[in-house]
Amino acid sequence: MFKNGDCHYFGGIFQMEESVVKRVDPQGRISIPVEWRRSWKSDRVILRRHGDKIEVAPINPILPSSLFDSIEVGGDVDFTDPHSLRRALLEPEER
């Protein structure tokens, strides 16, 4: 394994980036160093392709409690009727 520290200059601030060279196995897998993964709160990542570069970023879990009161529905919805609730969520509200 090869490690290198790259230095980038951003508006008067130097930022150090750690680089690691890894092999890609025949199934397309790579190993992310455990030191980098220690602060992650999830074992899921998102891959983004930017031309010939790939960005790998952890996906932070969403707590169900953060979704409370995140959707507004009109006052005429019958919450005991799933069809009424579905219509209220899928159809745009008329104003």
Highlighted features:
two-stranded antiparallel ribbon; 14% helix; elongated; alpha+beta; single chain; two-stranded antiparallel sheet; 95 residues
Describe the protein's architecture and organization:
- With 95 residues, the chain is α+β, with helices and mostly antiparallel strands.
- The protein has one domain (29-95).
- 14% of the residues lie in helices and 32% in strands.
- It has 2 helices and 4 strands.
- The chain has helices spanning 34-37, 82-90; strands at 2-10, 13-21, 45-50, 53-58.
- The strands form 2 sheets. A two-stranded antiparallel ribbon has the order 1-2. Strands 3-4 form a two-stranded antiparallel ribbon.
- The longest helix is centred in the C-terminal third of the chain and has 9 residues, at 82-90.
- 0% of the residues are buried.
- The mean pLDDT is 80.
Summarize the structure.
With 95 residues, the chain is α+β, with helices and mostly antiparallel strands.
Would you spell out the secondary-structure blueprint of this structure?
Layout: E1 2-10, E2 13-21, H1 34-37, E3 45-50, E4 53-58, H2 82-90
Antiparallel strand pairs: 1-2, 3-4
State the total count of DSSP E strands. 4
Percentage of residues in strands: 25-35%
Radius of gyration: 23 Å
Number of helices: 2
Cα shape: elongated
Distance separating the two termini: 61 Å
Query: In terms of per-residue confidence, which ranges show pLDDT below 50 for 5 or more consecutive residues?
Result: none
